[in-house]
């Protein structure tokens, strides 16, 4: 006698609990990503479809619908089914209700609906779009709970219901909470995805601005919404809509017109009354609920002299008029729970719609081909009607007639039977013409249906037409106003002072932001203070004096541009190393940042001028660089062996001075360089000799009295009046700018300066020198200047920049 295998109680409990949890997740609490419905809602809609309870017919008792649902498809309590049906009919719970109710279906005050024997229901007009073509084998059917009937596993909906009406549910170990959205905005995003499946979430958010709650109010979209749409989880702040009304004798009232989603209005009124009685909110004389069928109206009368804004802020602070909505976009995908972001949620609907159309097309094609096959047989019979009649009359039985017809005209069994079933009136000329017309129309239909299955563009066009139809027929204006939450991580500049800072970038790519005050002013020739800490073999490449609110544009040697705000660079002390630029930017191999530019505004009449090592220059509109991607954009096209060395912001009135390492300079008008596209290579700016290379690009304005400050590697420098640089044609050999000797070393660079400016220099010994420009003598072009900094043996200047007042910086 064999014994049954024994299992432990722990194993049995684990197995049973797992099966239970999966049943709750898939079969009760979490919606399907395709039609956005939980099983109970799907069964309610399918039961109404089976009853013929459509919008074009009269209402039926809710009890009749609930009875069909629990008797045929949903083996749960009638109260659970009725509660789900009631919510589907509530306009304050559903953005676009799926049930058209008649009777008492509850209120926003929390009042319960009347008993199901009193209320009547039918599908809403929109709900009809969920079940179109369900009889055309568009979705899979499965046995119901007792294996006596079949029910759809998903509805062939044309509506993106998962995001349209949202949902909430608590399963075992997980939950979902998806807010409702605007149908028109969802259709706009779907059309974008239809053309480009790889569209970024940011592109979709240009259409889907945020949740659209049926109760209106304000949704403060900030970092939480961006996180939710990118990751599937996030939190948004929701506020009710309050208005200030004037009463008689100069008195004022605050009127609540809209409240946050899922908030009980009666509880809100009680909460406000409790706060007034407890004196937590002062200045209120009366509180009354004047809401009616036209909408919500909670009136709060104020004492004379009370400032309404103070009371409004208190209401937002102490009552649920301001609440947080936690978004958790969990849905069932392939019978497994999956966290979706905005893009994947819409893609699952699109993929479902594509499959439905393909299955519907195959069904229609099969029916059309079968009908065309029969019509072909009838055409043969009509063309040979005398012989057909003769064969039929000569046959003893119908089977003999069918066999004779098949043999004589090479017909199929179906065609022969259709000829036998044909009525005599079809022999008239009019009926003959109708048959030919029907056949020709079927041939066209078959060709069209075949093109849908074989051509993706045709299929895409069908989906587009359906989406545009749904948008045109059912989309409604947005109810919830979207506001930017400036305290939620998106607009945070108001919290950051626009202080002057120094951006430091080392050759190896270490970047930091330091306040300008940490560098104390020193006399010319001083030894300096400890500057940027670098490792052996690294040195400072760029110093930029700017402010926190400006745009930081970083250009690489390969001609790419990256963009961020100055305050996004990590702040460090004077001696800190900073963070590596690779932590902020996706740089490629053998790519590094060669120049940094700060811009406050991208104005239409301003341009960026690009200068390369080989003397090429290019001018492009600043508007082309306003929008950037995290992966960067192409800023300038480069020829082989060339590198981008510098970018300057210019306009048509600017003069350009290119300086080279061997002390040559050329001055020409910015208008000599025509405006080009972002990826253009540019034109020749200066003709270089031998191994010479361009080291700086100075931009000048005709109405400025600035001078050019030139600095050499060994610490020598000078300032020279602009008038000494004559204007030439672009592409010339240039004139002498600096007398280069072994004592001075090669030219490091040049910048425009004013008398009130200060100069910051960095040495290879990591020392910082700050001096006034007026202390440096103004001399001619062909001179070597004066010593600016005393160098230790083997040291040299590696970077310099000017320091200007913020007001001056803005003017320039």
UniProtKB/TrEMBL annotation:
Residue stretches making up the Topo IIA-type catalytic domain: 30-495
Biological process per Gene Ontology, one example term: DNA-templated DNA replication
CDD domains hit by this protein: TOP4c
Record-linked InterPro entries: GyrA, GyrA/parC_rep, Gyrase/topoIV_suA_C, Topo_IIA-like_dom_sf, Topo_IIA_A/C_ab, Topo_IIA_A_a_sf, Topo_IIA_dom_A, Type_II_DNA_Topoisomerases
Positions annotated as active site in the UniProt record: 118 (o-(5'-phospho-dna)-tyrosine intermediate)
GO molecular function annotation: ATP binding; DNA binding; DNA negative supercoiling activity
HAMAP family tied to this protein: GyrA
Family that this chain belongs to: Belongs to the type II topoisomerase GyrA/ParC subunit family.
Miscellaneous comment: Few gyrases are as efficient as E.coli at forming negative supercoils. Not all organisms have 2 type II topoisomerases; in organisms with a single type II topoisomerase this enzyme also has to decatenate newly replicated chromosomes.
Protein name per UniProt: DNA gyrase subunit A
Species the sequence originates in: Halodesulfovibrio spirochaetisodalis
